[in-house]
Structures are given as structure tokens and as C-alpha cells.
Amino acid sequence: MDHLLSQPAFYMPFTARTNPYLDQGRIHVKQWAQQMGLLDDAYSAWPDRWSQQKFDEADFCLWTAMTHPDVGLDELNLVTDWHVTLWFVDDLFLPLFQQNNDRQAARCQIHRLLDFLPIDGLPRPYLVPENPVERAFADLWPKTAPPMTPDWRRRFVCDIERFLHGVLWELDHLEQDGQDGVADPIEYIYARREFGGLPMTSTLMEHGLGEIPEKVYRMRPFQSALRAFADIVSLHNDIVSYDREVAEGSISNNGVEVLRKALDCGLEHACGLLNQLLTARVRTLENTVGPDLTRAMEEEDLPEPLPRRVTKYVQALKDATAGSYAWHTATGRFDRRPAVPHGPTGIGTSAARLPHHRAAGRV
């Protein structure tokens, strides 16, 4: 397949680093995914992204090792397991329900998944996991919730809920509008930011770096940092993954394609415009957030060590953007070989015949 999109020069002033526990993390996440059932043969038929080989090629642990370069091994494993679970949901799990046009079952599944994330953090012995994602949630939440406050837990659960409903929203939107995808660039960027899973990423960072109090979390400059982080990772992913999404027929909800259709312009011009927006978001995180946030914290007269913790957290967001850029170059997830529907029929294998829709907002 000929190359479709010339990669622009990306502006990235931050330096990527790799967590020293990467090798141990790789071993852990492969074993954990197998234990949860995420790599069962029933889930590897389509889009051939959840076979053992594709899992290794994607190297999901490298993404978390490069976006969380300073956390310890236990935290790296926790972060990786959460992200692998959401990748699985995005790629395969909820779309399986859409195959049979069973929205009610999909929504019931979402509600049931959230039952495994009780705000009080207490075990629910009557809840018995029945599929890989339920097993993953049941395994991860007791490791995540106990050291955090109820306010943080609510934020995290809300992030997960928005992500789950966002997958269904995007699939419903595609079905209603045929193959046109999201037509409005502003709507697209909002959906990318709010429903794409990156709010969960930034919230989960607090688990290892220290919880951000609600007073700081609601500050306008802090929210600006979170929005810039989500936009940077998402829009960069759109450009890098464009060729692969063309190859597998899932291009309708890619920011480059959204701009191309909305502005009725050429592909390279649309890519250039999206890269300009991406660069502006990087500069927001680089030049604007820090001084504004410092002034806001001084005005609130926050006691130490909270300002230092917040500054460290914003630096972690910067490190994560550089790490995500580097992972997109290193991973095998974005090759351009088309996904060919194949494999057996029956429960757990219907994704082999699923239209190649991919939810907006996930890498």
C-alpha cells in the first residue's frame, strides 16, 4: 500500500524518558492480560489486534513506561493494566455488542462494569466477573481505590464512565450518519478530549504522584493543563495513525479527515492545519499553564508542599506528552497493513465481521 500522508515536523520541546522497570512491566502485563482473558482466542479474530503477536507488537507497556517514567514498578503495572483494559474495550469489547445492534445489552454491560467500581472502595462479594473486562475491573479497583479520597474516586469513576459511553456514542453516531463520521471539527475535538480515555490517564497520574485537592483541580490554569494534555496526545495520534486507519477502513473519525471534509481541502493541507493546532496546544502546556498556575496558587496562598506537588504534576504531564510521541514512533501498532475480516463464527468471534469502526479519542 502506497504511503498516504506525509508526516509533518512535530513541535515537541519536552524530553522523552523511559521507566527503568519497563522489562519487568512487559512481563507482568502479558501475564496479567492472559489471566484476565484479554488474550483469549475468541478475541483475536478481528481486527487481529488482540492476538499474542499483535499484543507484543503494540508494546502497550512501552507507552506507560514512557508516559510515566518516574513511577515504581507496582504503580507502572497498575497504570499499564488500566490502559490495556481500556484499549481492549475500545478496540473490541463494546463494538461486539454493536455487531448485533444490541444497544440495551451494551448499556447494561456499562452499568454492570461501573458496579465493580464502588465509590466506597469496599468489596462486593456478590459480584462475580463474567468476562475479561469485568475481571480486570474487579482486579484493579481494590488496588486503586484504598489510598485515595472519595472525591478522587468519583472523578476517576466518572472518567471511566465517560469513556465507556463515549465508545457507544461514537458507534451510534457512525451508524446514524452512515460512514461520514463526525462532521464538525469543534464537536470532534470536544469528543476526543472528553470521551477518549485521557482524562482517566491524567487522573490516574495522581495515584502515583499525590492527589490534587479539588480546590486546585478546579482552578482554570490547572484545567487548561489537563485539556492541553488530552488534546496533544489525541491530535498527534490522529496524524500518526491516519495511514493505518485508512487501511482498516476506520478513518471517518480521524481529526485529519474531519478537517479535510469540513473545509473541503486537500489531505496535506488538512494535516498541516491540524498540526498547527497541535503545536498551539503544546505551546499552551509549555508557556502558558506554568506562570498562570503559579499566580493562581500564590493568590490562594496554598501551603507547602502542595505547590511543589502541583508543579511536579504539571511537569509529569509534559513528560507524558513527549513519551507518547516517542511511543508512536517505536510501537508496531500503527503499521498500515489492512485488517482483513476472517475467523470463526459464534459468540466471542462476531468481531471478525464487524464494520471497521474505531472510537474517536483512543490511541
Write the layout of secondary structure elements.
Blueprint lengths: L21 H15 L15 H7 L1 H8 L5 H27 L3 H13 L16 H13 L5 H27 L8 H11 L2 H12 L4 H4 L2 H21 L1 H6 L7 H9 L3 H34 L5 H25 L33
Helix pairs in contact: 1-3, 1-4, 3-4, 3-15, 4-6, 4-7, 5-7, 7-9, 8-11, 9-15, 11-14, 11-15, 13-14, 14-15
- Give a count of the beta strands, DSSP E runs of length 2 or more: 0
Average pLDDT metric: 85
Distance between the termini: 22 Å
Poorly predicted tracts of residues: 337-362
Estimated radius of gyration: 20 Å
- Gross morphology is globular
Q: List SSEs in N-to-C order.
A: HHHHHHHHHHHHHHH
Instruction: Please bin the fraction of helical residues.
Output: 55-70%
Question: Count of DSSP helices?
Answer: 15
Major sheet summary line: none
Kindly estimate the percentage of residues that lie in beta strands according to DSSP. under 5%
- Structural class by helix and strand composition: mainly alpha
